[in-house]
TrEMBL record:
EC nos: 3.1.6.1
Recorded superkingdom: Bacteria
Name this protein carries in UniProt: Arylsulfatase
Molecular function via GO: arylsulfatase activity
Top EC class, one word: hydrolase
SUPFAM superfamilies hit by this protein: Alkaline phosphatase-like
N-sulphoglucosamine sulphohydrolase C-terminal domain ranges (all copies): 342-497
Species in which this protein is naturally found: Bremerella volcania
Keyword entries, A-Z: Hydrolase
Similarity field: Belongs to the sulfatase family.
PANTHER family: N-ACETYLGLUCOSAMINE-6-SULFATASE FAMILY MEMBER, N-SULPHOGLUCOSAMINE SULPHOHYDROLASE
Length: 509
């Protein structure tokens, strides 16, 4: 009797203590999560300090990785702004959602998108910041978006209530509007989707006033292949128009007068750039020394723009944490694609080469994602909408082409044995167009990458284990004949799987 009493009383007390906690857990599990989808524009994974080898510090963005999961092998279907956004909205490749390149005039907003599906499931939806799809946003209860690309200062924005002019730095304005919506405009009785999307760090990289002089005393290391001679690859690598040396102009480099500033803003701007530009003009640089100066000016302005993004991310995360919303909020941070920070001598994106093909992806969801975990699974921006729908308990439509990442997120980052994706498919369309990158499609299996420049009739094959910087194509080399044949077969299979019969006659789509 004494034995039973000794142990039954603590068990009784434990039960009394646990029942309310278990009830709360069940209620939390039944409650639909809020979703905050954060996306910047042209944010290279090399410029997020949560990733190994990063060149800067992003303490707030890193919080998402620290409290959640970092994906080291997330890729895009089409490395360019508008098409990437259309893929994320629809879960479909460009040839199915109809938005092929940045010259496509308007996204077809009548088609199925994941915000519309979340709306039907009882979510309040909002998009704030960069839209860049031509048409008016659909599937959102609230929108406040930039006109086209939008300027870095004093933007005019299209809102649910008409056009509105703002004064200030665009990154700060986008964050302020997002905070206002979270604090004052959303319905606290509904789960919400917030798409919080920055313009920065897109070209031409105009920093906010508070960051104009950051990095003045820093000299950034040049990438090892910045002086690439483009040998041993297809002709497109040589014939592009996106080098820091030749393509980057004085407007990009802030030597030319910047437009759109108020008198007060210009005074601060000129105080920062005036002395720097005078020193540059006096130096009369030429050749490699001029290119080196361009690289330093570019990379500093680019990172200054990221500092504003990181600051804004911190404000949103702080609000979620301080209000307790974090406990039931899925937070995703990504970019519309990767970007070149001097690798191959380039800036911009577009290529199936790693720096533009690969994009950052960080995910935080307390109770579902173990903090500090890392995934090496092959995933894509094509998977983002399916993941958000699955998290919300909404059925994923059968015509979406991506995969929910929940099996990875809820498995400590370990790739499930039955994870169906073993290879990735890519297709870029914008030629002729800016930067003269030829149209191409290809397949990547995590080590080997086969690329077809179909208008040129040229191929590349890279072995990233032996050549991680993709400097030497091994296409046609006898020792890679078996791999090459296998990759050709995989490319054919993926084009059939994803129903991509573009390009059609004459290389047109």
């Amino acid at each position: 009797m004494t034995y039973l009493f000794r142990y039954s009383l603590p068990l009784f007390l434990i039960a009394v203590t646990l029942v309310p906690w278990l009830n709360r857990s069940v209620q939390a599990a039944d409650k639909k999560p809020n979703i905050v989808f954060m996306m910047s524009d042209d944010h290279a994974f090399q410029a997020i300090s949560a990733y190994p080898g990063a060149i800067n510090q992003t303490p707030n963005i890193d919080r998402i990785a620290k409290d959640g999961m970092r994906f080291d092998h997330c890729y895009v279907t089409n490395s360019i702004c508008g098409p990437a956004r259309a893929v994320i909205l629809t879960g479909k490749y460009s040839h199915l959602n109809g938005f092929y390149d940045n010259k496509t005039p308007r996204f077809d907003g009548s088609q199925q998108t994941y915000p519309k599906l979340l709306q039907k499931a009882g979510y309040q939806t909002a998009i704030i910041g960069k839209w860049h799809l031509g048409s008016e946003p659909t599937g959102f209860d609230y929108f406040n978006v930039l006109q086209g690309q939008g300027p870095y200062y004093n933007p005019k924005m299209r809102t649910s209530d008409g056009m509105k002019n703002y004064e200030g730095h665009t990154s700060e304005i986008i964050t302020d509007i997002a905070m206002e919506w979270l604090q004052e405009k959303r319905d606290p009785n509904k789960p919400f989707l917030l798409m919080y999307q920055h313009k920065a760090p897109h070209r031409n990289w105009m920093p906010a006033p508070k960051y104009l002089n950051k990095y003045n005393d820093v000299t950034f290391e040049e990438p090892a292949n910045m002086w690439d001679d483009y040998k041993n690859r297809a002709s497109g690598a040589r014939d592009q128009d996106m080098t820091i040396a030749k393509t980057m102009n004085m407007h990009d480099l802030k030597v030319a007068t910047q437009r759109g500033l108020t008198p007060e803003q210009r005074k601060v701007w000129d105080a920062a750039y005036g002395p720097k530009n005078k020193a540059f003009e006096d130096a009369k640089l030429e050749g490699k020394e001029l290119t080196r100066w361009k690289f330093q000016r570019y990379i500093k302005d680019y990172l200054r723009c990221i500092d504003s993004v990181d600051e804004g991310v911190g404000q949103v995360l702080d609000y979620l944490d301080e209000t307790g919303l974090s406990e039931n909020t899925l937070v995703i941070y990504s970019s519309d694609q990767g970007f070149y920070l001097g690798e191959h001598g380039w800036f911009d994106k577009r290529w199936m080469y790693e720096e533009s093909f690969r994009t950052p992806l960080l995910v935080r969801w307390p109770g579902h994602v173990k903090p500090g975990t890392v995934s090496d699974a092959l995933v894509m921006n094509l998977d983002f909408p399916e993941t958000m729908l699955a998290a919300a308990g909404v059925e994923i439509p059968s015509d979406m082409q991506g995969l929910s990442l929940l099996p990875i997120l809820e498995n400590d980052g370990k790739t499930p044995k039955d994870w169906p994706r073993k290879e990735l498919y890519y297709h870029y369309y914008e030629f002729p167009g800016a930067h003269s990158v030829p149209r191409h499609y290809g397949v990547f299996d995590g080590r080997y990458k086969l690329i077809h420049y179909y208008q040129l009739g040229e191929w590349e094959l890279f072995d990233l284990q032996e050549d991680p910087s993709e400097m030497n194509s091994v296409y046609g080399k006898p020792e890679y004949a078996e791999v090459q044949a296998k990759m050709h077969e995989k490319l054919k299979e993926l084009r059939e799987k994803y129903k991509d019969d573009t390009p059609r006659e004459g290389g047109k789509y």
